[in-house]
Amino acid sequence: MKKIKLVSKIELAGLYDWLQHPEAGGIDLFIGSVRNHAQGKEVLKLVFEGYEPMALHQMEKLADIAAGRWPVKKLLMVHALGIKNIGEPVVVIGVACAHRDDAFEACRFLIDELKKTVPIWKKEYFTDHTVWVNAHP
Questions:
Q1: What is its EC number (predicted)?
Q2: Domain containing 17 — which CATH number?
């Protein structure tokens, strides 16, 4: 079972509960949030944009790959779009498996591949300029 979404605001409450599965002894939950610095400068905020149909399609594809490689019981991938302030969650990857090693490996694969292949772009706002990051795919 999987949950894949693009949202304007990530609500963390309930995501862990959704990942629960009676056969899962290992649940890995990765939360990426906005930090207050990058490139040695103070970050004021981030803005995320994405090509939603393609992003969701690619996220589904990655979920299917992960489910084919690891014995995944449940999987979630949620990414935020729009303006995000310091401390706000921007991406959540969750994997429930019978064993922790599988959950860790699948979760790491999903976040790494999401950042490489999903058409979501990040603009960093500094005190003196802005810059686009993740010019992919």
A1: 2.8.1.12
A2: 3.90.1170.40
Instruction: State whether the Cα torsion 2-55-116-40 is positive or negative.
Output: negative
Our CA angle for 107, 112, 117, nearest 5°, is 125
What range does the domain containing 110 cover? 2-133
Report the C-alpha dihedral over residues 47, 87, 41, 109, rounded to 10 degrees. -70
Instruction: Name the pTM for this structure.
Output: 0.93
CA separation for the pair 64, 70 (Å, rounded): 10
pLDDT tens readout for residues 55-88: 999 999 999 999 999 999 999 999 999 999 999 9
Q: How confident is the model at residue 57, as a pLDDT? A: 98
- Average pLDDT per consecutive 10 residues, the chain (137 residues; last block may be shorter): 96 94 97 94 95 97 98 98 98 98 98 96 91 68
What tokens does 108 get? 């790491």
Q: Which residues pair with 82 in a beta bridge?
A: 48
How many domains does the chain divide into?
A: 1
